[in-house]
Amino acid sequence: MPASPDTAPILRMQNVSKTFPGVKALRNVQLTVYPGEVHALMGENGAGKSTLMKILSGAYIPDPGAEIEIDGTLVQIDGPLAAKARGIAIIYQELALSPNLTVAENIYLGREARRGFLIDRAAMYAGCGDILRSLGATFGPRTLVGDLSIAGQQMVEVARAIHQRSRILVMDEPTTALSSRETEKLFQIILRLKAEGLAIIYISHRMAEVYELSERVSVLRDGGYVGTLSRDEIQPESIVRMMVGRDLSSFYKKEHKPAGARTPVLEVMNLSDGGRVKSGSFTLHAGEVLGLAGLVGAGRTELARLIYGAEPRTAGTVKLNGQPVDYRTPGEAIDGGVVYLTEDRRAQGLFLDMTCGDNINLGVIGRDAKWGGWLDRVRGRLRSLAPIKAMAIRVPGPEIPVGTLSGGNQQKVLLSRLLETRPKVLILDEPTRGVDIGAKSEIYRIIDELAQSGAAVLVISSELPEVVGIADRVVVMREGRTVGEVSGHDITEQSIMAFATGVDIEKVAA
Amino acid sequence: MSDTVSASKPERQRLRQEQMRSLIRSIGMLPVLIVLGILVQLAGIYFTGEGRFLTWQNLSIVAQQASINAVLGAGMTFVILTGGIDLSVGSILAAAAVVGLEVSQVAGNLGVLAALLTGLVIGLGNGVLIAFLKLPPFIVTLGSLTAVRGLARLLGNDTTVFNSDLPFAFIGNDSIGIEGVFEIPWLVVIAFLVIVGSWLILRRTVLGVHIYAVGGNQAAARLSGIKVWAVLLFVYGASGLLAGLGGVMQAARLYAANGLQLGQSYELDAIAAVILGGTSFVGGIGSIWGTLIGALIIAVLTNGLILLGVTDVWQYIAKGAVIIGAVALDRYRLRGSART
Q: N or C, which terminus of chain B has less Cβ within 10 Å?
């Protein structure tokens, strides 16, 4: 293995700060990366990882005083092209490919092979065939990118980086949408690239991956540099402590007690949409937090949307307080007391240009309105002030556009909108996705209080520690079916994973 | 600022910044309008020796010229706020005017009602296709731009429909107020009422919030229980209805309507007014006052160029250049926050 500290660093960033209007996103951050190493970059959401990488890729210009050296020479990265010319390539979580073009066209995008004025497709197909083969791709250069799986598309991005002779490759949470087999394959590719002397900056929240792959780990917290651990110092506990700055005891809240005589509120039986959801069944009781776990793509979100009336069902029944219900629109579900928090708050939840107040009130302005649909603005203001205070939403006033808030505060605004309708059943889809650690624990507290007050809460989550930490019972989905349930002390990451992946099931049952 | 929410110093500063930005946004193009007015006046003095622009009589003419476009622009504002577009308003105006005049020949003032209904029905037709068949608004209204133009000609037997004894002609030609002292043309009164009514709907009703919500994020609107179809039906219906009202105003002014010529390319002026007013083309951001200012900018420009004796050909070129220039200026000014 090409050792690190004996060789000269390929990249050295020092004194990097970045100020946005009103926010200091980075304060004197440093990062040193050697060729042939996988360098993990860790930190909570909002710690500044993305900002640092955007500076490296030329998307942001750092504050004056920052020093970026590549191969020991001081360089100015003043745009994406400059970064590319220095051999820096970034693979973002949201892949930057054109689905309507072929693999070869994507790899050559912006640097098309030409013959005179004409595009030389034959040369392009030939030129990237080798790279694709070396990566072990099962598709050819003529395949449409839109036809590939996420893993395949990621491979195209890697191929593009190799083809551009990139020497520093940044990967931002590359395994989020991959199955375990695809992840395994990606790791092999990463190891090969490392052996060829590339430096890989690997951003991930998953401790196991970081442990498996990386030579060194650098940790950021609140826009500042905390430290770098070398391979033999890497330990989950120390990394978490560096990321959070405090111990995690009493992080999850579970003070509510599932009532002895449990009243079923929501009973879902064999629900199906004829596609992604084949058969979903579970019972949700009053005053209970039920976890819905499963791998990405297992059909959890789709099942929730069926219950909520966002998509039409083809089979199955839903009962609310014993009465069969068939919501055809989300509006009907809300009127019935069932609300759904989307996993994608920016695209499906919030109205980013509208104020916090309007966003909070949106579900109830119809109920509050005077005759003829006239807004009750006094009441609306009161309604928006109360949750801002109760949920500690950090915003100077309800007239601020919600798009300017941080992820955690946005999530609390969206949650407030649901709570204002006084729901009996809450379906919360990834309620802590993309929120910082402080807001996370506040959201857990809110969920706990909701259960205490008698609401029935279904939490869909891909973060196993979260599910284990807050749920009274956990229902697990696999490939569109609810396949198992664990409760009480049996709720462990292992037992949930066993159901979610379908392996080891006998061992768990035994 | 509320005292129940604790605000630290930087937060208060941010609040002030935010208020400033929304102020700039709502004032929008007003400075452009004022500067344009002054320029036209100065150019008049410089080139022709007399400033005829800033006279009560001329300003009244400008307001009248802006009135029909402002009414169409109000409907267009509803539509564009939802992220849509209505290309058919010029054709609807023609069809409504023809129907209004024909009905007025036999039933007098019922012609007004007939014209409004014509506009409403065609607009709702657009709305049904967009809301229920989920067809793209551009394509639906591009189709009805052509089809309704044909309908307008058909309804008038492809000739000009006259009514020299039009009972509602006062709308187009008379004023309200004390004669000789203070008069406001009916056209201007109607346009102003439409603008105020639209403002009330957009800012003071649940429907208005829902219109902004649908334009801001249609997926989120659906998930949060808003009846998106009802909102779409309303905005296209309103656009059609207001185009019908524009037809009444136009017919009342001319005592005549020609299905072929009336309202040609009015949709473009209405869209220009909305865009000049700072309303985002992707929906969710904008105000009706902006549209009013946009319509006034277009009218001032047209009027000023005529006063200066600029030929028709150059008027077109100048108008187009000002529209692009003004929006470019706006973009530049709101850099970073805007997404027109």
A: N
